[in-house]
Design a protein that fits this description.
about 450 residues, 15 helices, eight-stranded parallel beta sheet, seven-stranded mixed beta sheet, about 30% helix
Length: about 450
C-alpha cells in the first residue's frame, strides 16, 4: 500500500467509515460464537463490536439470523487448467467455490502441462488474473525431474507448497521410487502434501478388475493395504529427512490409527465424500460417479474418520474437487476415470452434518478455515480477528435446500449429491471485504488474488 493510500485508509478509519459493514450476525471468532458487528476496510477487518449507528459504510450486509464464518479455504482442488478445460476451468471452478461459500483454494499440479517448473506456476497465476472469483495458490509437483530445485520453487509467490503422488498418477508426476522420494523430502522446508497409495500394489491388483465392469470392486482393487503401505512408507522416509507431511484424503481406519501416533510429523486431511458416502451403497446407486482415488470405503472406515475428527486427529477437510465429464465417467469400469466435483458442495455437506449432530460449528471452522491457515502458514486468513483479511462466509443454519446438478457451476455440470436435501446453506460470500455472492447470487467481477504465505519456517 502506498503512503497516499495508507493516508486515505487512515482518514476513513478515523471517520469510522468502512467499505463494508456486516451487521447483526453471530460471528465465529477464536473466542467462540459472539453476536458482533464487523467493519471491513481496504480488504481487512478493522473493527468488531456494536457498530450500528457508530460506523458508516459504502455497503452493508444484514447478517441478522445468520452465522458469519471465517472464509472457507479448500486446500485441495483440481481445476484442470491448462490442458483439460473440457472438464473444468479456473473461472468456473472458482465461481463454484464462491457460490459454495469458499473464499480461497489450493490447486493441484496434475494439469497439462504438469506444474513442475517456475514458468508452469507463473502461467497458472497469469491465467487466474482477472478470472478467479476467490483467492488462490497453486501446488508444484514433486518429481525426480525437479527435486533439486524444489527449495526455490516452493518459495515462489503463489505457491501452496509441494505435492507428491506416490500412486495414481503418471509420467514425471509419479514419485513411487524410494530414492526419488528421499530426494524430494531432502529438498525443501515447507510441509509436503502427499497422495499415499502404493503404486506397486495397485499395479499388482489391477488384474482383479480388468474387464469386469463392476465399480463396486473399486475399493477391493485399491484396498486398505494399498493406502496403509504408502502412508507407512512416507512417514518412515519423512522421519529420516526430518520433514513435515500433510497426508491427503485419508480413507481408512488403519491409516487413522497410524497417523494418530505420528501427529508431530504429519497433519491429516479427510474429504466430504469419504465422510458422506459409503460402500457398497454409493456404487450401487451412483455407479462410476462415486469412483474416487482413494476409494469411498465401507462403514467401518467412515466411522473411523468421524472418530478421528472427534479426537482431533484430522486437521482439515478438503474437497478433492476433481471433475470429469459425464461421457468420460460413463466408460465401463475400470476404464472410467476417478474423480468428482466437490468444491461447491463442501460447505453445504458439512453444514448438513452440523445439523445432524455429527459436527459442531466451531469444529467446522477449525477444519475449513483455521486449520488450513495454521498448518500451511497462510498470511492473514483463517480467522475473524482484527487485521485479518475480510474473508467471510455467511450461512443460514436453518435454510433447507436441495443440491442439484443445475446449481453446479463446474464445466462438467454434475454432482454425486444431485437431489440430496440438506439443512444449512451459504447465502453470502465476501472476499477481502468485497461481496462476490449475495443472497446466493454471483455479484461483481472476479477479484481473486494469489494467497500469501508466511516464511517457510512458519509452515513447518
Amino acid at each position: 500500500m502506498s503512503d497516499a493510500m495508507d493516508a486515505a485508509v487512515q482518514q476513513r478509519l478515523d471517520r469510522r467509515h468502512a467499505d463494508l459493514l456486516v451487521l447483526g450476525g453471530t460471528l465465529l471468532t477464536p473466542s467462540g460464537a459472539e453476536r458482533l458487528d464487523l467493519a471491513c476496510l481496504a480488504g481487512r477487518i478493522v473493527a468488531l463490536g456494536t457498530l450500528a449507528g457508530r460506523w458508516t459504510a459504502d455497503d452493508t450486509l444484514d447478517a441478522t439470523g445468520l452465522h458469519v464464518l471465517p472464509g472457507v479455504i479448500d486446500s485441495q482442488v483440481h481445476f484442470r487448467e491448462p490442458g483439460l478445460t473440457h472438464k473444468e476451468t479456473l473461472e468456473a471452478g472458482t465461481r463454484g467455490a464462491v457460490l459454495g461459500g469458499v473464499t480461497g483454494i489450493f490447486e493441484m499440479p496434475n494439469t497439462q502441462p504438469l506444474t513442475l517448473k517456475a514458468e508452469d506456476l507463473q502461467a497458472k497465476l497469469d491465467r487466474a488474473r482477472g478470472r478467479a472469483w476467490c483467492d488462490h495458490a497453486f501446488y508444484i509437483g514433486g518429481s525426480a525431474v525437479n527435486a533439486d530445485r524444489l527449495p526455490l520453487l516452493e518459495a515462489l509467490p503463489g505457491c501452496a507448497g509441494v505435492k507428491v503422488f506416490m500412486g495414481s498418477s503418471f509420467g514425471d508426476l509419479l514419485a513411487d521410487e524410494e530414492e526419488v522420494l528421499r530426494n524430494i523430502l531432502r529438498n525443501g522446508r515447507r510441509r509436503l502434501a502427499v497422495h499415499a497409495e502404493d503404486e506397486a500394489r495397485l499395479k499388482q491388483r489391477k488384474a482383479l478388475v480388468e474387464g469386469c465392469g463392476d465399480v463396486t470392486l473399486h475399493p477391493v482393487w485399491r484396498d486398505e493395504q494399498s493406502a496403509l503401505l504408502a502412508t507407512q512408507r512416507i512417514l518412515r522416509l519423512a522421519a529420516e529427512a526430518n520433514r513435515k507431511l500433510h497426508v491427503l484424503h485419508v480413507s481408512t481406519a488403519e491409516e487413522m490409527a497410524l497417523l494418530a501416533r505420528h501427529k508431530r510429523r504429519a497433519t491429516v486431511e479427510v474429504t466430504p465424500h469419504h465422510l458422506s458416502l459409503c460402500a457398497p451403497e454409493c456404487y450401487q446407486r451412483l455407479g462410476t460417479l462415486a469412483q474416487m482415488n482413494p476409494p469411498v470405503r465401507e462403514q467401518r472406515h467412515q466411522d473411523a474418520l468421524w472418530q478421528a475428527i472427534a479426537e482431533g486427529v484430522v486437521d482439515v477437510v478438503g474437497s478433492d474437487h476433481a471433475p470429469h465429464t459425464l461421457e468420460e465417467k460413463a466408460r465401463p469400469y475400470p476404464d472410467s476415470p476417478s474423480g468428482m466435483t466437490g468444491v461447491q458442495t463442501l460447505l453445504p455437506l458439512l453444514l448438513n452434518h452440523v445439523h445432524a449432530g455429527r459436527l459442531s460449528l466451531q469444529r467446522l471452522v477449525d477444519l475449513t478455515s483455521a486449520g488450513p491457515a495454521r498448518i500451511f502458514g497462510i498470511a492473514g486468513k483463517g480467522r475473524i480477528a482484527l487485521g485479518y483479511d475480510a474473508d467471510l462466509t455467511l450461512v443460514d443454519l436453518a435454510a433447507q435446500r436441495t443440491i442439484t446438478n443445475q446449481w453446479i457451476a463446474s464445466v462438467s455440470g454434475w454432482t454425486p449429491y444431485d437431489g440430496l436435501p440438506v439443512t444449512g446453506w451459504p447465502l453470502h460470500t465476501v472476499v477481502r471485504g468485497h461481496p462476490v455472492v449475495r443472497d446466493e447470487a454471483l455479484v461483481g467481477q472476479p477479484i481473486g488474488q494469489p494467497i500469501e504465505f508466511l516464511d517457510a519456517a512458519a509452515s513447518l
